[in-house]
Give the backbone structure.
Amino acid sequence: MNIIFYTIIVALIIAFILGVLLGLFKKIFHVDTDPKVQKVRDALSGANCGGCGLAGCDAFAAAVVKGDVPTNGCVAGGSDCAKKVAEILGQAGVEVKPKIAFLACAGTKECAQDKAEYIGIKTCKAAQLTLSGTKKCAFGCIGFGDCVKVCPFDALSMGDNGLPHVNKSKCVGCGKCSSVCPKHLFRLIDADTKGAIGVCSNKSDNKPQIRKDCTRGCIKCGMCARKCPEQAIDITSGLPVIDYTKCTSCGTCVSACVDKVFVIL
């Protein structure tokens, strides 16, 4: 009985000493922080998505108070958040242009040929490391949904066609899907973009092989650029690039492309 009693007393004494030491250490090593940092942190979305390019909301709050990043850097918070942060810092508000993710691949199960039956770890990263992807098209979406798993806003889901689907009403353009995709198939575009856009990322110029691997692959024929009445399409880089200051969403490129590489936003 005495042993139990003495053990309790010793434990309490040790706990007291440790508490005192922790309190001293906290005072000795205390670093004063700008109160604006906490105010900014409270104004943020709290998603910790990393869309600002930093580790999370805490890092962004500290950086924006220092002046290392702009007040509109929180993509998840949008215009309202940027306005609040600017007010806290006594600065003029900076306009935020909302962005969304767009998948530049139309290689569905029906369109794109598989290399073989894949029996490895079911992640895009693993498939890329072992086989450079599961599709014959070296640029095609692998389809295991790594992007869906990392999306902090539930804006991505895998479709029955084997491709991820972007919910535009939920996507804030944080870029996590873009950073995790081993094929780099996601583009961040302005949410209000209107016009045609290409849904292929195949940079190869081997036309017969492109068509053999995927029936929605761009074969670089240039018909879209030649037919465009506004001369809004440039194919000098290999893939069609749209000049949205010229594009009128007329759909000429959509009908001219035999491989259905274009869609209208």
User: Anything to note?
Assistant: The two ends are 79 Å apart (CA to CA). The chain has a mean pLDDT of 91. The chain is about 35% helix and 10% strand. The longest helix spans residues 2-28.
